[in-house]
Amino acid sequence: MLTATNTPTEPAAMAGEGEAGGDLALLGLMQLVSPALPIGAFAWSQGLESAFELGWVNNEAELAEWIEGVLEDGLSRCELPLLARLQTAWANDDGASIAHWNQWLHATRETAELSDEDTRLGGALKTLLGNLNLLPERTLIPAEPGYITLFAWAAQMRRVPVRQTLLGFAWAWLENQLAVACKALPLGHTAAQRIIEQLRPALVIATDLALARQDHELGPILPGLALGSALHETQYSRLFRS
Question: Which UniProt keywords apply (predicted)?
């Protein structure tokens, strides 16, 4: 009979246990998208704080419209399809593809803040995974791994199906955007839940679009967000790092 003292709990055992998409995979995904994951994601607004300061987003309806626009013209064209490609590359131990898409993603970051966010979150996630003995082979890790790159590795290691990886990442992003609004707009928590109810179908649509996109169709189309992020770098008073 198994007890609390002899149940295997070592990271290496847990990472390889269970079937793809099973209970352990689900729990691993929940851990990865949790706001309690100690990587500092709460410190970044991804240009949203500037949208508030500049008067582009002033209320619940405008916030929902902004978030849906970023989801459609940003995540579904950039982060989500990159996650799918990177997770496949990790599954195949394809170091060349991992390095290529990691560098491609760095090149799409249009401001210093957006680039810094991806690099710093990637570094923090790398440190965390190292402390948990969950890093991949050193030869497969790019010199400057971004957050998306290591998120894809962690999902693959936990045997999360690719589609669920994309949905989980999109969900975490939505929750973070609403957490930013609750602090900076301000936005009440009930209003945030109304936006979640409104946009849940949009997360599924964005995932479908991301999985269908060809390589030549990739790249964000977010000039407003890029402009807001650039202006945020010199914003006098701010709560967030981007």
Answer: Chaperone, Cytoplasm, Nickel insertion
